[in-house]
């Protein structure tokens, strides 16, 4: 689409730029800009992508050049394998089981009451276990620093002369 002179808007139709912005643009110093190296990144396909594309193109060309007249005529032989007697019997048995399940009448069942048994121990057993746990905790948590210091005095009274004389005579 080329613009002709008649299609161009007139000067009065163009948008007006603010005077302060216009003066800033006219007085702009390009030396204030930093030099930047632009890096153009072009993503090239890898060798694997190219090889895969070539293989795909070759496959499409081979399909276009394919000639069905080069194929050899073959005869197909259909084999029907019939099940033996044991397979038939097993299938009949399974079918009868499925029929029995589908036609089952739940209304013929007898009503039963379930009895719940309480496997919890009685109060005496709980009290005995608490006493045992308390006793074991007392032993495990024993603090020997709370003991008072004592000295042991061993008394081994020797027999008197009279007792020795009595034992000798006896």
UniProtKB/TrEMBL annotation:
Location(s), subcellular: Cytoplasm, Cytoskeleton
Residue ranges the record marks as coiled coil: none
Gene3D superfamilies: Single helix bin (1.20.5.520)
Biased composition (Basic and acidic residues): 143-154
Name of the molecule in the record: Thymosin beta
Glycoprotein in keyword set: no
SMART domains, alphabetized: THY
GO BP terms, alphabetized: actin filament organization
Organism lineage string: Eukaryota, Metazoa, Ecdysozoa, Arthropoda, Hexapoda
Organism: Parnassius mnemosyne
Keyword annotations: Cytoplasm, Cytoskeleton
One GO MF term attached to the UniProt entry: actin monomer binding
């Amino acid at each position: 689409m080329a613009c002709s002179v008649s299609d161009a808007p007139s000067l009065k139709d163009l948008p007006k730029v603010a005077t302060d912005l216009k003066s800033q643009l006219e007085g702009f110093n390009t030396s204030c800009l930093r030099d930047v190296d632009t890096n153009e990144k072009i993503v090239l396909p890898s060798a694997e992508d190219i090889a895969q594309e070539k293989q795909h193109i070759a496959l499409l060309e081979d399909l276009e050049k394919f000639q069905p007249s080069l194929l050899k005529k073959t005869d197909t032989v259909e084999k029907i394998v019939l099940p033996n007697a044991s397979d038939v019997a097993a299938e009949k048995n399974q079918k009868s089981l499925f029929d029995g399940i589908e036609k089952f009448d739940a209304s013929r069942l007898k009503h039963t009451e379930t009895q719940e048994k309480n496997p919890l121990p009685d109060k005496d057993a709980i009290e005995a276990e608490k006493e045992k746990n308390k006793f074991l905790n007392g032993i495990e948590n024993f603090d020997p620093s709370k003991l008072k210091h004592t000295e042991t005095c061993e008394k081994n009274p020797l027999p008197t002369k009279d007792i020795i004389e009595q034992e000798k005579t006896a």
